[in-house]
Amino acid sequence: MSGKRKKIVAFLCNWCTYTAADLAGTSRLKYEPDIRILRVMCSSRVDPVFILKALMDGADGVLVGGCELGDCHYQRGNYYARRKVAVAKKIAADMGLDPERIRLSWISASDGPRFAEVVNEFTREIEEKGDTPVKHEAYV
Amino acid sequence: MERIYEIQMGIEELARRALETGTVGGVAALLEVPETNKIAFTLVRAPEDVKGLAPFSPWMLENAARSISQMTREAAFTQPVAVILRPCELRALRELVKLKQVNMTNLILISFDCPGVFPIGSRLNGNGDLPAAYEKAVLEGTNCPGIRQVCSACEEFVPRGADMVISLVGRSPTDTLRAAFPTEAGQKFAEALGLLAEGREVEAGEERDRLAGIRADEHNALSARIQGSLKDLDGLVSVFDRCISCHACRYVCPVCYCKDCFFESPAFSYYPHSLHKRLEQSAAGLRLPLDRLLFHLGRLTHMGASCVACGMCEDVCVAGIPVSQIFKTVGGDIQQMFDYLPGGSPDDPLPLLTYREDELKEMED
Ligand code: SF4
Ligand code: SF4
Ligand code: SF4
Ligand code: FES
């Protein structure tokens, strides 16, 4: 991939997407190295403030990853997570930030390839968008 | 169809009679002391103290849901208390019930269709005389120039969930009362005071509908204005550039009830070395204090779904930021997404504490 690396913050749930990321690694799958992974116990732990804080601190993208609906280790967590991401996206859109820099994906523990695919796809989208304007703004 | 009764008394007399008959042990409402130009939300317990009761006075010095919360949060009233609130105060109160900050036991909720209020400053710096233009606007069912922007654009000016709903729009402040009693508690209250027996049933005027139409147009205009000013990062920065991070907007907000606000917690205090590192890494430099804009974005995530658009936050903003117009607009969008009206049905759970399985597909991947 050409050009400067982007900064993508990924909040991944311990039981599924993080495990999938691990699997992608042990299976030696290649994916774009622009992401910084933070492990959370469940996608529902991702407070919308985390997402907006990352964006306001200059992240080019934020990925939230959780278990497939119905498979959450805590049973219903990802349904709540979806509402939280929806709130973050709505606020971003209304307040002059780009909601497309926020992505929510369900990736199950056994799906290393899907993890690599999502990361590559999202990285490409973010590259097309270019640097977040927040990076060049002191007055945030 | 709601039944409206003409009652042969004004608000002071109603309160006096409620206290004298022992129907209530207290009346909580705005009270004016004209000699000193003082006005405050007050709990009156003695019939002789109802003089100066001024619930229709077009100023809101606080969203009174906060006072009711303070008086009932830990222990409910032990005898009935009539509280007279504006519709947005009532909605905040009902929202605070869901947030476990209010105990509604023994509250008799009285409200009225609200013509709007003026910014606080006009009262504090002015003489408190009711502007003639206001009376005229109330009588005609129009917006009085100079009221809060969010009032001009308020479509929720007819109270929800009140036990007694006074018709104010279309009336003069010196007229006798017209009111409906939509709930069982309201009916009982009216009966105890003999209001229904003495009262005469009347038709609703058309002024309320006229005002509703005007407000709907104003609401659209307000949303368009705010959206236009916040369409990109430059917009966001220029709107909030003046913010001095005093957080007064959240102090006065009725639904920002937290004793320890997250945005004042150690989560946002940085050690020098981390600040220095940020400075080194930032292409643009950093303006301190940090997280100035994040405060607003974050506050919206906390209570945008519950914002009742009362206008308090904007009134106290020393920087002149249209805070309540922004929160009304963005909060309204969040509410719409979840089909939620803050202070509406007590059966609707807070949007972030519930979900539907078959929703928001567009948020995934
Ligand atoms: S009241 Fe105004 S200046 Fe103070 S924090 Fe709120 S928006 Fe900023
Ligand atoms: S955010 Fe402002 S307008 Fe909304 S409820 Fe709080 S004080 Fe009222
Ligand atoms: S901004 Fe959030 S944490 Fe602070 S008082 Fe409001 S709801 Fe509570
Ligand atoms: S544990 Fe994975 S989404 Fe809840």
Mean pLDDT of chain A: 95
User: Mind telling me the C-alpha Rg of chain A?
Assistant: 14 Å
Bin the helical content of chain B: 25-40%
The fraction of residues in strands of chain B falls at 5-15%
Q: How many structurally independent domains of chain A?
A: 1
How many helices of chain B?
15
**Biggest sheet of chain B, strands in spatial order?**
3-2-4-5-6-7-1-8
* Heteromolecules bound: iron/sulfur cluster, FE2/S2 (inorganic) cluster
Question: Can you describe this structure in just a few lines?
Answer:
The complex is a heterodimer of chains A (140) and B (365). Chain A has 140 residues and is α/β, with parallel strands linked by helices.
Protein topology:
The complex is a heterodimer of chains A (about 140) and B (about 375).
Chain A: E1 8-13, H1 17-26, E2 35-40, H2 48-56, E3 61-66, H3 77-94, E4 102-106, H4 112-129
Parallel strand pairs in A: 1-2, 1-3, 3-4
Helix pairs in contact in A: 1-4, 2-3
Chain B: E1 4-6, H1 11-20, E2 26-33, E3 38-44, H2 65-72, E4 81-84, H3 87-98, E5 107-112, H4 120-124, H5 132-140, H6 149-152, E6 164-166, E7 178-180, H7 184-192, H8 195-198, E8 200-202, H9 207-229, H10 233-240, H11 248-251, H12 272-281, H13 292-303, H14 312-316, H15 323-337
Parallel strand pairs in B: 2-4, 4-5, 5-6
Antiparallel strand pairs in B: 1-7, 1-8, 2-3, 6-7
Helix pairs in contact in B: 2-3, 9-15
